[in-house]
Amino acid sequence: MDLLRFVPGRARDDARPRWRNWAGNQVCAPLRLHRPLTEVELVLIVRTALAEGERVRVAGGGRSYSGVALSDGHLVETHGYDALLDLNVTRGLATVQAGASLRGLEDELWRRGFVLPPWGDAGEATLGGAISTGTHASGLHISSLASQVTALRVVTGTGDVIDCSPERDREVFEAALTGLGAAGILSTITIQVQRAAHLQQREEQIDITDLLDRQQALLHGDDQMEAELDLAGGTALLRRSRRTDRVPDLGWHDRLNDEVATRVGRTSVERAGRVAPSIADRLGRVLPHEPLTERVERATHLAERREGPRRLEMEYVLPRQHAREAIERVTDLVRRGNWQPSLPAVLRWSAPDTIPLSMGYRREAASITVRARPSEPFQPLFEAVETVMRDYEGRPHWGKVHFQTHETLRPLYPRWDEFQSTRRRLDPRGVFANAYTDRVLGVLR
Q1: By mean pLDDT, which of 152-156, 255-259, 306-310, 403-407 is the weakest?
Q2: Does domain 84-195 have CATH number 3.40.190.10?
Q3: Structure confidence by residue, pLDDT tens digits, 132-145
Q4: Helix axes 266-275, 277-286, angle to 10 degrees
Q5: Distance from C-alpha of 272 to C-alpha of 365, rounded to nearest angstrom
Q6: Contact 296, 248 (CB under 8 A)
């Protein structure tokens, strides 16, 4: 921990550290920025904030697009609080400090013959941040990453530490799991892990209409599935993955061409084709622009391929039976509004869980994500899409852009009041609140 910034007393604004998230759309100037290495330091930060009448937030990996991590009081970066503390190979359980990045943790587990449950594509997110905001991958039987957690150590708003699990202090466990950091700081996390295996991934271009017609059958065919949607063009890039005993067998030349085509070539040729087909034709002759349709890789490597440019995202999780109609309406508003999104939308699927504030709470779900570059005027499109999603009781991703408040969110979560009661017990003075939690969860009374 940086002790020079831990001296009590409010710093001048011009002397404050600056923090911004990965996308650059969320910025704050906290009173102090902490980088703890131990749980004792986490407790000390909370108790000092209480004594000063200040508030505390944890920034994690900075991968959230919402204001969930912002603080004008104490801000905690947990990059150094990232150790794998225990791996029970018999039970398939890993106990980890909450600041471990998903990619770093996956690499460490791989060396020991294990992998995390499916976690999506934000490899620099921390395990604690991913769990707190409800991060999920995509597949028929895949629910939120938080649903695979079996135990937590939580630093409460009174500076105490609670061990909790489904069998011990269940209310605390469920509130802290996906609680936006508003019910406590996650210190250590015990999570189910799987035996290591590569993934065999296949890609295919498909009409969005065909995808929606066949989605249920396609979901039953693979472990993981997601689709990038070109809403203006009506096509989708479908990715399906399954665990395999095969190992990567690409030579360096094929791998390089695949990387160039995925990260640069395909997008460049497609954009050129919209404005100058002749240039696109010439560009396609010299630049690899057709990625492989099948590859065998580790999950972390596939996630790196999907990560893409810096961007803003809004994601809504809605009952699966409404996915078709919702996508058709979003496609129609994109075309009528003559919007030309520079990044594809994403369609994912997930299984239900029982975590009170999880977007997938008791919901066979589909999630629709719209994306834009930070330099683009994203708000009109995002607001229009949100209007559609609210017609289907869509729940916004807690870590992404949305415009809802606690008044509009409360009816979407049957256990909302139960969560709020536990939150008040764990943080009676609101030390873990910020402007975002005040808006989406309400001010603690």
Answers
A1: 255-259
A2: no
A3: 999 998 888 999 99
A4: 160
A5: 36
A6: yes
Q: How far apart are CA 402 and CA 412, in angstroms?
A: 15
CATH topology of domain 198-243+293-396: Alpha-Beta Plaits (3.30.70)
β-pairing verdict for 56-58 and 74-76: parallel
pLDDT for 357-376, tens place per residue? 999 999 999 999 999 999 99
Residue 5 confidence class, pLDDT cut points 50, 70, 90: very low
For every residue of 20-78, DSSP letters joined together read: E-TTSS-EE--SEEE--SSHHHHHHHHHHHHHHT--EEE-TTS--SSSTT--SSEEE--
What separation, in Å, do the N-terminal and C-terminal C-alpha atoms of the chain show? 32
Question: What type of residue sits at position 46?
Answer: V
Using an 8 Å Cβ cutoff, are 59 and 99 in contact? no
pLDDT of residue 124: 86
Longest alpha-carbon distance in the chain: 67
Q: Which residue has the tokens 């998230």?
A: 21
The CATH number of domain 3-76 is 3.30.43.10 = yes
Kindly state the percentage of the chain with pLDDT values over 70.
86
Per the DSSP assignment, residues forming a β-bridge with 226 are 239, 348
Place of tokens 């719209």: 370
Q: What is the pLDDT of residue 11?
A: 45
Residue 60 structure tokens: 């994690």
Rounded (10°) angle between helices 102-111 and 299-307: 160
Q: What are the structural domain ranges in the chain? A: 3-76, 84-195, 198-243+293-396, 251-291
pTM: 0.88
